[in-house]
Design a protein that fits this description.
With about 400 residues, this protein is an alpha+beta fold. It is built from 9 helices and 20 strands. The protein has helices spanning about 15-25, 65-80, 110-120, 130-135, 155-170, 220, 240-245, 300-310, 360-375; strands at about 5-10, 30-35, 50, 85, 90-95, 125, 145-150, 155, 175, 180-185, 190-195, 200-205, 225-235, 255, 265, 275-280, 285-290, 315-330, 340, 345-350. A hairpin with a 7-residue loop joins strand 14 and strand 15. The relative contact order is 0.21.
Length: about 400
């Protein structure tokens, strides 16, 4: 029996939408399946903005993905006339005393500087006085320092997914939305995928199911992943002048190892005064599943966020929370990515390049996944294998 598809994509979020676009761009016959209608707010790729940075303190192996992603998003911007990427710079702040690690890295500023130097990324390190003078939105502590560059910034995740799926469809990809995959198996030189609506067959399958991935893997592989609940907050500035100080021209994106249980990160104001300003923390201890996660945010959570992470460090933000949203991280030890072939099915590629820092790399990873599925030459993935 002839295979009707070259590649099937399971999951059309950050990685799946990017891979579907790259496959369609190469002329492959591709089917993308998603149990929802992306972009949506049930996974990991919503919330208006996502940080992008080329100097990745998690390790030098990530810079190539982020750099290529910037190139792809700029190409799509030119083709579609839509804004996907804003490069308004970044600061990584660190200082004396006990600070929480960022993605498992104790001194994230120093690690970021090392990666920037290794990749020739123009940057500077600011002392406390320079931070206060340039970025008054941050109430830094004496002794704090900041890595700063101009090439980082933020992307609009929902727009990126829309753009890539729209282009994929225009290039001939088929999208099966609101269709849930129940199983897949490899046999007879191909892969069969069964959903709640139909059965499909392809030469290759890419599984990019995000927080639903552990439920699709055998227990020994699923044990390497954990899903955690994260909350995004939008607090209103105290007045119009404070809001102006958070504008993209004045305020970079930031990752701040404050002297508190969790790192805080955030964005400039991307909307009107009434839209609030987004910031969040990252918790890595309490696990959940997509079916069990509490998607509501309590008043107590919001009050604790303001009291511990906002009021002491952002003097221009009020306690008025405009909105809060829950998203999911799918994490691997040491914030690694997994991009590898299924150890028991060599025609199945598993992509879980997340661990809380995946979206900035997604366009480039989509290209890699397309190359892997079609047998093209591609970058070394040894650091991203299941075994690590």
């Amino acid at each position: 029996m002839a295979d009707p598809y070259d590649v099937i994509l399971l999951g059309l979020g950050a990685m799946g939408s990017a891979a579907t676009y790259q496959l369609a761009k190469r002329g492959a016959k591709v089917l993308g399946i998603d149990q929802f209608s992306p972009p949506h707010e049930l996974g990991s790729t919503h919330g208006d903005t996502r940080i992008t940075r080329l100097a990745c303190g998690e390790g030098p192996e990530y810079t190539e993905f982020a750099t290529r992603s910037h190139e792809i998003w700029r190409e799509l911007e030119g083709e579609l006339g839509v804004r996907l990427l804003t490069q308004n710079g970044m600061v990584v702040i660190y200082g004396p005393g006990k600070r929480s690690p960022s993605h498992g890295v104790p001194e994230f500023l120093a690690a970021t500087v090392d990666v920037a130097r290794a990749n020739g990324i123009d940057h500077r390190v600011l002392d406390t006085a320079e931070i206060r003078a340039r970025f008054p939105v941050f109430n830094v502590t004496d002794g704090d320092e900041a890595y700063h560059d101009d090439v980082s910034g933020f992307v609009y995740p929902e727009r990126c997914i829309d753009a890539q799926l729209g282009q994929a469809k225009a290039l001939g990809a088929r999208l099966a939305l609101n269709e849930r995959v129940t199983s897949f198996e490899q046999a007879d030189g191909g892969v069969t995928v069964t959903t709640d609506k139909a059965t499909y067959r392809a030469r290759q399958l890419i599984v990019a199911a995000g927080a639903w991935l552990p439920g699709l893997l055998p227990p020994n592989l699923a044990a390497g992943f954990k899903v955690t609940r994260q909350v995004l907050y939008w607090f209103q500035a105290k007045d119009a002048e404070a809001h102006r100080q958070f504008s993209p021209d004045a305020c970079p994106i930031y990752i701040w190892q404050i002297p508190a249980p969790q790192v805080v990160y955030g964005f400039p104001a991307v909307g009107a005064f009434e839209d609030g300003i987004k910031l969040a923390t990252e918790q890595t201890t309490t696990t959940t599943t997509p079916g069990e996660v509490d998607r509501s945010v309590s008043a107590e959570e919001t009050e604790e966020m303001y009291r511990t992470y906002v009021a002491p460090y952002f003097p221009g933000l009020s306690s008025k929370c405009i909105k809060a949203k829950v998203c999911l991280y799918t994490e691997v030890d040491k914030a690694r990515f997994v991009i590898d072939r299924h150890p028991h099915m060599d025609r199945v590629i598993v992509a879980s390049p997340c661990s809380g820092h995946g979206f900035k790399h997604s366009a480039g990873i989509g290209e890699l996944l397309a190359q892997m599925a079609l047998g093209e030459s591609h970058r070394d993935i040894s650091k991203f294998r299941f075994s690590g």
